[in-house]
Amino acid sequence: MQPVQWEDGVLVLLDQTLLPSRIEYCRCRNYLQVAEAIKTMKVRGAPAIGVSAAYGIVLAAFSYQGEDKAEFMRTLEKARAVLAETRPTAVNLFWALERMKGVWEENSASAISEIKNILADEAKAILDEDLQANKRMGSFGNELIPKGASILTHCNAGALATAGFGTALGVIRTAHEAGKDIRVFADETRPLLQGARLTAWELLEDGIPVTLIADNMAGSIFRQGKIDLVIVGADRIAANGDVANKIGTYSVAVLAHYHHVPFYVAAPLSTFDLSLSTGQEIPIEERDAEEMRRWGEYQLAPQNVPVYNPAFDVTPADLVTAFITEKGIIRPPLKAGIKSLFEL
Ligand code: MRU
Known about the structure:
Elements: E1 4-7, E2 10-14, E3 25-28, H1 31-39, H2 46-63, H3 69-84, H4 91-106, H5 112-142, E4 150-153, H6 168-177, E5 183-187, H7 194-205, E6 210-213, H8 218-223, E7 229-232, E8 236-238, E9 243-246, H9 249-258, E10 263-266, E11 272-273, H10 290-293, E12 294-295, E13 298-299, E14 312-315, E15 322-325, E16 328-330, H11 334-341
Parallel strand pairs: 4-5, 4-7, 5-6, 7-10, 8-11, 10-15
Antiparallel strand pairs: 1-2, 2-3, 8-9, 9-14, 12-13, 15-16
The protein binds 5-S-methyl-1-O-phosphono-5-thio-D-ribulose.
C-alpha cells in the first residue's frame, strides 16, 4: 500500500478522502495541486505530508523552463512558501521543506538542470528513508508487544500516513507478522473518521484482527480490562517529550494512565522538533466548522451551531511510557533520551 508515488514526473496520491468506498488516485502535475491535496487531506499523516511536500518542490523545479538561476531559485522559494502554508501542526512538512531548501542552496552553483535532478533524488531519499524508518520502528516496537496483546490505536498512523508500512501500525504489523496473535481496537476518530475509514480498512486488508469502536467507547473498554497497551503516532514532539497528535489522543493517554496501561508513541526523528521546548508552543490547526456540522450531504448538526474544531491535541510527556523511533526505544527521562537521539 503506497499512498505517495512518483511516476514519470507526476506525484500520484491515493485519495484518502474517498476511502474506503473508492480507491482512486489523484495525479499532481504541479506544486499547487500538491498543496491543495495536502490542505484537503487527500494525502494526510505527518510523514506522508512531508514526502508529498518534497515532491511538490520537485514539481516546481521541473516546471521551470527558463535559464535564469535567480528566477529559478525564486520559483523554488515561492513553492516552498505555498506548501508551508498548507497545514501547521505536522513538523514533518517543514522538516522536508527545509531539507529540500538546504539541498538547492548547497548546490546553487550547479546548472539548473542538475539542481532539478538533485532535488528529485532528495525527495526520493526522503521517501525511501521514511519507509526504512518505519520498518526499523516496527522491529524495535515489536519487543514491547506481548503475545496475545489487545492494542488500542487512535486515528491512522499506518501505511496510508507514511511512505508505507506505518509508524504505530508498522509496530502492529510487525507483531502480527511475528505470529503474536494480537488484536486491535481502532477508535473511529471523529470528525474525519481516519480510524474508521483508514485504520480499519488498512488492517482488514492485511488480515490483522481489528474491532472498530466509537471514540466515546474507549473508557468503558479500558475499564473492562480489554486494553493491554496503546500505540499512536505523532505530528510533532517537543524537546521535553510533549506530543501533538490527532485530537482525542490526550483523552486516550489519560485513560491509559488511569488504568495503568502503557501508552507508546511511534514516530520517526523527522517528527521531533527540538526548537520547541514544550508542547505549549506547538501550533494547533483548527479546521473548518463544516467538518463537524456535515458529512457529505448529511446535516449532522444545526447549520448555525458554533463549532470548535481543533485537529490535534497535546499529550504531556509524563503520560508517555516510551517513544518508539528508528533509532530505538526512548524511555523516561524523555527529555534526556530525545536529546541523545540527535547526538548519536
Ligand atoms: O489530520 P491527519 O489525518 O493528518 O492526522 C494524522 C495523525 O494525527 C497521525 O496520528 C500522525 O500524523 C502520525 S502518522 C504516522
